[in-house]
Amino acid sequence: MDQDLEARIRTRAYELWEQDASPEGKADEYWEKALRQLEAEGQLGESAPPPVDQSAKRRTADPLPEDAQEGGQRARS
């Protein structure tokens, strides 16, 4: 996908999300809304890009427990 186009969709999706009091877990819905709006405004060019799962971009892994970080062995005194 064109980086400029992706940035415009992301910006519009963020604006829509903020207007709706920033609900959690709805990133894909706002991406779709933004995509449809830009398409209706004629800003997408000839073909619409496929939806992108935006929720996965902000997920972070939980830190490993202390004993798992050391290969599952705890230091003994």
How would you describe this structure to a colleague?
The protein is mainly α. It has one domain (3-66). The protein is built from 3 helices and no strands. It has helices at residues 3-19, 27-40, 66-69. Helix 1 crosses helix 2 (27-40). The radius of gyration is 19 Å and the shape is globular.
Would you report the number of β strands? 0
* Average pLDDT number: 75
Output the helix-strand order: HHH
Number of helices: 3
**Major beta sheet summary:** none
**Percentage of β-strand residues:** under 5%
Overall 3D shape? globular
Count of domain modules: 1
Class by helix and strand content? mainly alpha
Which residues sit in consecutive blocks of at least 5 with pLDDT less than 50? none
**Span of the ends, CA to CA:** 55 Å
Radius of gyration, taken over Cα atoms and rounded to an integer in Å: 19 Å
Helical percentage: 40-55%
Features:
globular, 77 residues, 3 helices, mainly alpha, DUF2934 domain-containing protein, 0% strand, DUF2934
In a nutshell, what does this entry contain?
This is DUF2934 domain-containing protein. By secondary structure, the chain is mainly α.
Topology, please?
Elements: H1 3-19, H2 27-40, H3 66-69
Helix pairs in contact: 1-2
InterPro entries: DUF2934
Organism: Paraburkholderia terricola
Region (Disordered): 37-77
